[in-house]
Structures are given as structure tokens and as C-alpha cells.
Design brief:
With 156 residues, the protein is α+β, with helices and mostly antiparallel strands. The chain has 4 helices and 3 strands. The chain has one domain: HU Protein, Chain A (Irregular).
Length: 156
């Protein structure tokens, strides 16, 4: 869905039934039939530029309403559950001590991308999931740790 890494374009998806940008381009070419058709490399550039703008908008506290009533994408914040803390594996690998993540840099909140499917008109939408790319989640973490977006008010 929202991808910003060019290296994933030619790779076959590990998720069964998952559509890739190559599949989308094939459908685009078939539907254009003799009309103006752009090259695959231009198609990829356009898709990545559009997706990058969408991700920037979402990371700035907005939301993206997907066409055809598929739902909304946004970032949700949740209070850390201190009964179910995650292990800091970077610290564990370095020192061998089991240390828990407290998210002190975000004042005890954690953030995640969220696909709101309340108004989604797809039958069986619970079978579908939104998995952001690692680059998008790493960029969100970088923004939160730098303090640029920590004052941003994301929805709870």
C-alpha cells in the first residue's frame, strides 16, 4: 500500500495473494489499451512520489481517506501498558541484561500506523491488514526521538 523503498519493487511478495506494483502496472497497461501509456519506470516514480506525500501527511498528524470507501490511514497513540512491556533487544544484545522499554522519549506513549476499517465496504475486511514498510516505521521513530513530532497531537 504505502511503500517508499524502491528495492521492494521487483521482489516477489512473501505474503500469499499480495499484489505488487508490477501487478498494478500490468492492470494499468491493460486498462489503458492504446491510450497514452507511460513506461514502467515512470509509473514507479509516480507511485513512490504519491506514496511519499501520503506518508508525510500522515506523519504530520493528518489522515488519508482511501478511495472507494476502503477506510482511513493514520497514526494512533496509545499509553504504554506497564504490565506488558517489550524487551529492549539492542541493549540485551550489547550487555546481556534484560531491560524493558519504557518509551521515556515519548512520555510513556507508543505510536503505530492504523487502518480504520469502520466505514470500509469490503466484505470480509478483517482478513486484510495494513503493514507499513520498515522505512516508514523507522522514519516515524526518528521523528519522535528527534522531538520534531513528539509535540504533535496524534489521535488516541
Amino acid at each position: 500500500m504505502v511503500r517508499t523503498i524502491l528495492s521492494n519493487v521487483h521482489r516477489v511478495s512473501r505474503i500469499k495473494g499480495c499484489k505488487t506494483l508490477t501487478d498494478a502496472y500490468a492492470e494499468y497497461k491493460e486498462s489503458a489499451k492504446g491510450k497514452f501509456v507511460i513506461s514502467y519506470s515512470d509509473y514507479v516514480k509516480i507511485c513512490y512520489a504519491a506514496n511519499k506525500k501520503i506518508v508525510e501527511h500522515i506523519q504530520n498528524g493528518g489522515y488519508f481517506k482511501m478511495p472507494y470507501n476502503v477506510g482511513d490511514l493514520d497514526i494512533k497513540k496509545r499509553k504504554v501498558n506497564y504490565n506488558n512491556l517489550k524487551i529492549d533487544f539492542a541493549e540485551f544484545n550489547r550487555t546481556g541484561k534484560k531491560i524493558m522499554l519504557l518509551n521515556e522519549h515519548t512520555d510513556g506513549w507508543y505510536f503505530k500506523y492504523h487502518w480504520d476499517k469502520k466505514l470500509c465496504n469490503i466484505k470480509g475486511n478483517f482478513f486484510y491488514s495494513f503493514i507499513p514498510t520498515r522505512a516508514n516505521t523507522r522514519e516515524l521513530v526518528r521523528l519522535l526521538k528527534s522531538g520534531e513530532k513528539s509535540k504533535r497531537d496524534y489521535l488516541e
